[in-house]
Write a structure and sequence with these properties.
The protein has 482 residues and is mainly α. It has two domains: 400 residues, no CATH class; 50 residues, no CATH class. It is built from 22 helices and no strands. The longest helix is centred in the middle third of the chain and has 30 residues.
Length: 482
Amino acid sequence: MEDTPANPPAPAPQIPVWVRNLIFVLLVVITTLVVYSPSWMPAPAAAPPEKQLGFVWDDDVLCVANPLIKSPDGWYQFWVTKKTPDYFPIMSSAFWLQWRMWHMHPAGYRIVNTLLHALNALLFWRILLRLIPRQGTAAKLAAFIFALHPVNVESVAWIAELKNTLSLMFFCLSLLAYLRFNAESLWKWYFLSFGAFLLALLSKIEVAPLPCILLGIAWWQRGRIGWKDILCTVPFFVTAFILGLVSIWFQNHIAIGHDVVRTDSFLARLAGAGWAVWFYFYKAILPINVMPIYPRWQIDPSYATNYLPGILLVGGFATCWIFRQSWGKPVLFGLGYAVLMFMPALGFLNIYFFRFSLVANHWQYFSIIGPIALVSVGLVQLSRYMPQDQLLRPLFCAVLLIVLGTLTWHQAGVYRNSYTLWSTTLENNPDCFIGHNDLGFYLLEHGQTTNALPHFQRAVELQADDEASQKNFAARCSRRGA
């Protein structure tokens, strides 16, 4: 007979929740900085120009070379004048402040964007903890996936997209405060929510669907939308409508001006909206062949098959509605959120970027939260059917995050400078006229006139009616003596 120990060993002490949360926060921030380091890590001075850190596309024009950014009263003019292509005074004022810290050093701007992105991932985590409090593991997984998802690189590494990272931060703060208002009925949270929403709108108008999301949350949590829910969202709707009109005016009269971005009919745009939604869902679930500018679709509205993606989308939502008492309810809310956040960029309103492509990765920055939340909860639920091995589940999550982080690390390097951006674009989309035009500019500025001229010529061929491309080609031929 064995002797029983008089004093059995004490159980191992549990790590306090706040310590575990702090470790998680640090992991998210550090990991995000590491995977985005190719976009902000300076190269040795002896490295060739193609390896050096530089601005891309319109970063220098909007952020650095902009006279208002350098002007002492520029922050004031952003609010009261029409000297910017969009009315996003919060974003513009943030650039005004950053220029006084970083000047012509891209690394500073990109590190700020990266830290904002990590903060957005953490705010996403806190929102999910309030929406699905029993799914803490899924909430952390979703935050990590959002932080490391390669589709988000365009919004983080492209300095001009500070409007995305900044507005999503205010969007998440607004949503968090409103959830606390719903739970505690304290009006201070309501006013904080409204104030954060206003700041989000003044950073980028794509957050305008938030009041619809708030009503959707009421339906999801309580099964109905009451009069209090409607009345509380009225100020949100009114503010979004007014600033939406302001943004549309700026986009049409200043950003676009006399340029023609689209000439297709409403039916073509309607069919294209269905294509775009499925395209974004595909990239969210399987982020391969991610590129800065995708080939521009040509949609013929006379073919009935072009409406099939939209019909399938409507059928999917109808199916979720039929099964809303069980699995359909969270799926309907998650996918409905995504489609609502897609709405401003689905093609019914003109956006200057439509000259180049009808879809873009940076338009998915707000909406991808919905699919990520659904996938994360689904993966955690499926893991319950896996063998009860304490290492298998963490290993699966680690592999998933390593794959996403590797893809993001590679994609972040694309935005290192103009050469990497446009050469990568043309590798994947050889008929991108802006790619040929801007790569030609880069090569010319670095003394490679012979290599630049074919790109200018190709840009003219692809966009024969583009006066700017023709002038670029003529000027470059003149400088070459051709």
